[in-house]
Design a protein that fits this description.
The chain is an alpha/beta fold. The protein has a domain of 105 residues: Rossmann fold, CATH 3.40.50. The protein is 50% helix and 15% strand. It has a five-stranded parallel sheet with strand order 2-1-3-4-5, with helices on both faces. Helix 1 packs parallel to helix 6 and helix 2 crosses helix 3. The longest helix is centred in the middle third of the chain and has 22 residues.
Length: 152
């Protein structure tokens, strides 16, 4: 079986690449998917496809709705959802993805630094694991998929 893992959240660092490389290194049977990570394309997709909007609210609304076609579909197809909260920006969309995945009964792994513990306490409480590094995510995937634990 190939496991589908959706990688949601922060788009300004290479954490997705690190998880994918780690999974390849230990030869995990996984297929990764993610939202569109080109920030400008993600922001402007609705207006670019459906027509420009003078009002920023409607510009953003169109983009959010068009992006939701991809996001909802991939989360629904995922076996596991990993959500990364970065240091620099507040990722409200990541919190929404975590809640959506949790409501669907998907196993959710959250990744963030210690400085986000208080702000994300409810999100963390809904997750099955809370990590700080891509390597920890890979170790969880390895354990969940193969039942293998490093050092055992």
């Amino acid at each position: 079986m190939t496991w589908n893992v959706y990688l949601s959240g922060e788009i300004h660092t290479n954490w997705r690449d690190e998880i994918e490389a780690g999974a390849r290194t230990v030869d995990l049977p996984v297929a990764f998917s993610a939202p569109v990570t080109n920030h400008e394309a993600s922001d402007d997709c609705g207006a670019a496809i459906l027509g420009a909007e003078q009002n920023k609210f409607w510009h953003d609304n169109k983009g959010a709705n068009v992006n939701a076609i991809r996001t909802r579909t991939l989360i629904e197809k995922a076996d596991i959802v990993v959500v990364r909260f970065g240091e620099k920006y507040k990722q409200w969309n990541a919190a929404f993805d975590a809640g959506y995945a949790s409501a669907l009964g998907k196993p959710v792994i959250i990744m963030h630094g210690a400085d986000h513990q208080h702000a994300l306490k409810e999100v963390d409480a809904a997750a099955l694991a809370v990590t700080e590094t891509p390597a920890q995510v890979v170790d969880i995937l390895k354990y969940a998929i193969r039942g293998e634990l490093n050092g055992y």
